[in-house]
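User: quick one - fold this with flavin mononucleotide bound?
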Amino acid sequence: MDPQVKKTVLRKLPHGVYIIGVAHNGHTNAFTGTWLTQVSFTPPLVALGVRKDSGSFQMIQDAGVFTVNLLDKTQKPIAEHFVKPAGADHDKLAGIRTRPGSTGAPVLEDALGYFECRVREIANAQGDHAVVIGEVVDAGLHRDGPALTLMDTGWHYGG
Ligand SMILES: Cc1cc2nc3c(=O)[nH]c(=O)nc-3n(C[C@H](O)[C@H](O)[C@H](O)COP(=O)(O)O)c2cc1C
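Assistant: Sure. Structure tokens for the protein plus flavin mononucleotide:
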């Protein structure tokens, strides 16, 4: 396999850009994620790729819930903000309008819409990201309009 071709082809996969919200033991966090797809109608399941070395992965494992917040075409700066890792001295959600969803994970009030998931399975034997399978248990639409995609941002995550 030519690694450059592999990278080029994988980077052509279309992706959305989402803010994934997590909460555990009174702590909340969120990160920018793009490796997400629906994988079942009944029950409604999504699969999300999550970096195993991120703080958010630990919280998803511990709490078993997460939110997926969709952004509109003007909200690339929000995605940019949530790319940074959370640190002891860096609360990414400070100054961001959120409310706890029905699962307890944070919903971004300024997002286009969101859905909430309960973790049903985690496949993490292989690779640097785990595949988290979540059942969609709640959803809300704040306003209508097209969602931000990875192509809109000009960024890459993949290859
Ligand atoms: C364009 C883009 C897409 C990303 N997609 C994902 C993703 O799908 N899954 C993931 O775990 N991290 C993804 N990341 C990386 C996380 O946003 C990053 O590791 C973040 O710091 C994790 O936050 P945390 O350390 O507060 O948990 C992406 C980063 C960028 C720039």
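One thing worth noting: The helical segments are 3-10, 55-63, 76-81, 150-153.
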